[in-house]
Amino acid sequence: MREFDRLPPELRAWLAAAILPWRPRSVRRAFEKAVARTQDKASALRELDRLQERLVAKDAGKVWGQDHPDASS
After folding, report:
1. What's the Rg (C-alpha) of the chain?
2. What's the burial of 31, exposed, middle or buried (CB within 10 Å: 0-12/13-18/19+)?
3. What pTM was computed for the model?
């Protein structure tokens, strides 16, 4: 819980609403990389959204089958 509390407020809010069960350390690393690339926290959060969407799409086919609407081809 301490690690979560140390996250920046905007990242805590993103993580609280995340679909996947991210670990605070993992999401912090992904966020810091995205901020380094974009130089903007809002853009970095949008990158996290896209990353999460890709991960869900990747797993949806395995978990629920390729006919699931979120499954990637």
Report:
1. 14
2. buried
3. 0.81
